[in-house]
């Protein structure tokens, strides 16, 4: 029997969030947080709308997930995010003690891997899930931005 | 003529914020953000009250300062914070492009220096301002916590 709720399934939900950011003229990055095959938080980048550089998809998703659970820690949860988290978001994930991070496209310049951010020792990481779809949306956004300026 | 608005003056304001956190049974860390000798944001750690590990004093102060200024970047601002920022908060400061970070006590285990978090290249850092006062409040908090458990 095929398990319908795999990493690709949830990354598609994160990509839907990224599309919502795109539609608002935000850098298109989306995230969902999942526990027991249930989405408990969804968010997309809102740095322009909220005029706040800390309003990354992941940060909002962490806050929303903790609010939903009524507990600060996300040990049993997985974060799905369309782009490799930055050092701020990876640093936040450290405090949440999140169980797993699954990301799409790599961020080779400002991602947490290049920045050598320390994750929580119990956090597992998987990269590259639907990376082409994620990167395509980001590239489209930045090309359109450049053509407007 | 003595300039009354020096780093010690503003760190005292950050310590007042830390005291407010202490009074709420929060880990006592406080922050203010200053531009042109004016405090434009003040915040203290609210991780327990808000049930949110991202609710560090610095994160809230960044958001409040950007909201006050109506612009995302804090290039002309100084963050005063009673404890050396963690990698999440230092990572956030990277995005704000803040001009200066002045901190009190060192955080030798989870501070951004030990964690090797990359700051924005234009951010200047000064540590150790009123470090004894800051450390004293933190130590008092943790000793009291331990005695209660």
From TrEMBL, chains A, B:
Superkingdom of source: Bacteria
Protein name per UniProt: tRNA-specific adenosine deaminase
CMP/dCMP-type deaminase domain span: 5-130
Organism: Lutibacter aestuarii
Keyword line: Hydrolase, Metal-binding, tRNA processing, Zinc
Function statement: Catalyzes the deamination of adenosine to inosine at the wobble position 34 of tRNA(Arg2).
Catalytic activity: adenosine(34) in tRNA + H2O + H(+) = inosine(34) in tRNA + NH4(+)
GO molecular function: tRNA-specific adenosine-34 deaminase activity
Subunit (UniProt): Homodimer.
Active-site positions on this chain: 58 (proton donor)
CDD domains associated with the record: nucleoside_deaminase
Top-level taxonomy: Bacteria, Pseudomonadati, Bacteroidota, Flavobacteriia, Flavobacteriales
Similarity comment text for this entry: Belongs to the cytidine and deoxycytidylate deaminase family.
Amino acids binding Zn(2+): 56, 86, 89
The EC number(s) this enzyme carries: 3.5.4.33
Record HAMAP family: tRNA_aden_deaminase
Cofactor binding, per record: Binds 1 zinc ion per subunit.
Reported cofactor(s): Zn(2+)
């Amino acid at each position: 029997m095929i398990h319908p709720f795999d990493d690709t399934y949830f990354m598609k939900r994160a990509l839907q969030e990224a599309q919502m950011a795109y539609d608002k003229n935000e850098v298109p990055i989306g995230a969902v947080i999942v526990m027991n095959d249930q989405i408990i938080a969804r968010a997309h980048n809102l740095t322009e709308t909220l005029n706040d550089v800390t309003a990354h998809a992941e940060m909002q998703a962490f806050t929303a997930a903790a609010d939903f659970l009524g507990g600060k820690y996300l040990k049993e949860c997985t974060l799905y995010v369309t782009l490799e988290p930055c050092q701020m978001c990876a640093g936040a994930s450290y405090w949440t003690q999140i169980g797993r991070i699954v990301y799409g496209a790599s961020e080779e310049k400002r991602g947490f891997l290049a920045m050598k951010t320390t994750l929580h020792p119990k956090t597992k990481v998987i990269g590259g899930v639907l990376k082409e779809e994620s990167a395509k949306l980001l590239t489209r956004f930045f090309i359109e931005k450049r053509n407007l300026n």
